[in-house]
């Protein structure tokens, strides 16, 4: 589900991740709402996965809307590296 180098944004509430999903969909950006990978933890249970090529656009929009996720990880092999 999460490919090598994909980014995973973790939010701390379902409300925030759903709001982020709505904003990113409206902006027409490419991302996927996924269950939080087992290697990571979150009270919310959902995360947003996106490609490194979309990072700047996605994070700029989320920051502008006050929704920049507190945790962002990159898939490296079988692990996740916190950014």
From TrEMBL:
Pfam families: Se_S_carrier
Domain Putative Se/S carrier protein-like: 7-74
Name of the featured protein: Putative Se/S carrier protein-like domain-containing protein
């Amino acid at each position: 589900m999460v490919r090598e180098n994909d980014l995973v944004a973790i939010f701390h509430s379902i409300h925030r991740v759903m709001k982020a999903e709505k904003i990113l969909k409206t902006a027409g950006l490419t991302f996927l709402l996924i269950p939080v990978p087992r290697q990571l933890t979150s009270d919310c249970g959902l995360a947003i996965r996106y490609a490194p090529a979309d990072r700047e656009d996605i994070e700029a929009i989320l920051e502008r809307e006050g929704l920049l996720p507190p945790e962002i990880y990159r898939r490296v092999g079988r692990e996740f590296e916190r950014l």
